[in-house]
Design a protein that fits this description.
CATH superfamily of the largest domain: Bira Bifunctional Protein, Domain 2
Structural class: alpha+beta
CATH class of the largest domain: Alpha Beta
Number of strands: 10
Shape: rod-shaped
Bound molecules: 3,4-dihydroxyphenylalanine
Radius of gyration: 41 Å
Distance between the termini: 80 Å
Number of helices: 12
CATH architecture of the largest domain: 2-Layer Sandwich
């Protein structure tokens, strides 16, 4: 080794001081080995080779190398301490008592759960789930269902018209007409979907809400089949001991018509504020399909009979959970929806 080589190596090793100052803990270990390692350390090797230099140079370069060794050792020690204190600072900022973050999981809306359950129950009775358009003509929404356009029932539905004769459906009943026109009996369908009415958004109304329509048409369907079908549904959906009451009513598309009440599932019929102390809650309108509807939809009313029903899953969800205000079902507030995690 010449003088020149020795000085060059010292200068090179001096440059590593900068690298050491910012090294990571694993980087430090490597640097220590590379420079000071007992076997292959560059500085160790340099010190061992001092004997190859002429005596005058040996002393000077030897002194410089020893000073540099001290500086490198000190720099490594300093950087090691820095890394350790940064580590323990991280340790101090961790709050091990902090509760774990809630893991949000996707979930069906409580109204969707009710819609799916209702359709499943009717599926057991042979009903097929179908959907229809939300934009309808007044012919399908009203006329084919035996609702004259000047009839108060058309008023009652307070319609959103999009253009003359074209409207947002006010009920799912138009799918009765579409299905009967397209398919010959036997027909058994359930039709979930959104319907629209010019209603205020208040605790018991919404301008858009869910309905489920049902229609069964076949030869020889009687009022007994109708009652049995509805009774089966109510007991499967609420509970086996739920009372079912058929109250005479009027709908233009059914004859006779009924409104169906169930024993209040909250107070079991003893009377509470939700059922207004009557012990019953209305859950749907229904009846035997009016022959005029069959005639207007191309079904032979001499040959076939049937029953139909329409219910509101929002209302049924409110009854099921004792929810006092329909608007809660539209706000999508996680504090509310989080209570219905399945
Ligand atoms: N379409 C009616 C409404 O929206 C509900 C209804 C009543 C549907 C009786 C029916 C039925 O199928 O038979 O108020």
């Amino acid at each position: 080794m010449s003088n020149e080589t020795a000085r060059g190596r010292l200068a090179e090793l001096e440059n590593t001081l900068e690298t050491i100052a910012t090294a990571s803990p694993s980087g430090l270990a490597e640097l220590r080995n590379e420079i000071l390692g007992r076997k292959a350390g560059k500085l160790t090797h340099l010190l061992r080779s001092l004997g190859e230099l002429p005596p005058e140079e040996r002393r000077e370069i030897g002194a410089a190398a020893n000073i540099l060794k001290g500086r490198i050792e000190a720099a490594i020690e300093k950087r090691t301490a820095e890394c350790e204190s940064a580590d323990s600072a991280v340790g101090q900022s961790e709050d091990l008592a902090m509760p774990a973050r809630t893991l949000w999981r996707g979930n069906r809306h409580p109204v969707t759960v009710v819609v799916d359950e209702i359709c499943e129950i009717f599926k057991e009775l042979g009903f097929t789930r179908v959907v229809g358009p939300e934009v309808e003509t007044d012919e399908y929404n009203f006329t084919k269902l035996n609702i004259p356009l000047d009839h108060p029932a058309a008023d009652m539905h307070d319609t959103f018209y999009l253009s003359p004769g074209v409207l947002l459906r006010t009920h799912t009943s138009p799918m009765q007409a579409h299905t009967m026109e397209k398919y010959q009996p036997p027909i058994r369908i359930v039709v979930p979907g959104q319907v629209y009415r010019r209603d205020p958004f208040d605790p018991s109304h919404s301008p858009v809400f869910e309905q489920i329509e049902g229609l069964a048409v076949d030869e020889g369907i009687t009022f007994v089949d109708f009652k049995a079908g509805i009774d089966y549904f109510v007991k499967a959906f609420f509970s086996k001991d739920t009372k079912v009451r058929f109250r005479p009513s009027f709908f233009p598309f059914t004859e006779p018509s009924a409104e169906i009440d169930v024993g209040c599932p909250l107070c079991k019929g003893s009377g509470c504020s939700t059922c207004k102390h009557t012990g019953f809650m209305e859950i749907m309108g229904a009846g035997m399909v009016h022959p005029t509807v069959f005639d207007r939809c191309g079904v032979d009313s001499e040959k076939y009979t049937g029953y139909a029903y329409g219910m509101g899953p929002h209302r049924i969800t409110m009854i099921r959970h004792g929810i006092p205000d329909i608007r809660l079902l539209y706000e999508n507030d996680m504090r509310f929806l989080g209570q219905f995690v399945e």
